Amino acid sequence: MSVVVGYVPDNSGLLAVRLAAQEATWRDTDVVVVNVVGAAGYTHPTAADEKVLDALDAELEELGVRHEIRTIEETSGARPAEVLLGAAEQSGAELIVVGLKRTSAVAKAVLGSTAQRVLLGARCPVLTVRAAD
User: Fold this and answer.
1) pTM of the full predicted structure?
2) Which residues, including other chains, have CB under 8 Å from residue 68's CB and lie 6 or more apart?
3) pLDDT tens sequence across 74-116
């Protein structure tokens, strides 16, 4: 069992990791941090580079949280939500944590919402968080 968190290198992503760490501590389980790298690679704003992930690893170590950080590449059309849901299924997640950000109506209509896809597809509870702007 684990708490799985979708991580993007922004304030909501960091808040999601911190709350996932808190939930994992309360549940006496580990955290699986998932960072999805898309076709654009590390130039895409949702892909965290090695330096950022090392800092995240150090923060979780300092908190004393058992954790694993997975960088997963999108494969053949799989969207970030499907990648995150797959990681949750694989690790037996008892909770998924995702950060929210404000998105325009046009972007939602064309691309969909990763958080919405996770909420609708998850087989366990989902905690959504949003950092202040």
Assistant:
1) 0.87
2) 30, 31, 32, 33
3) 775 678 889 899 999 999 999 999 988 766 555 454 445 788 8
Residue 70 has phi, psi (to 5 degrees) of -115, 125
**Sheet of 2-6, strands arranged across:** 67-73, 30-37, 2-6, 93-99, 126-129
Cα of first residue to Cα of last residue in the chain, in angstroms, is 33
Give the ranges where 28-126 is alpha helix by DSSP (H). 50-63, 80-91, 105-111, 114-121
Domains and CATH numbers, the chain: 2-129 (3.40.50.620)
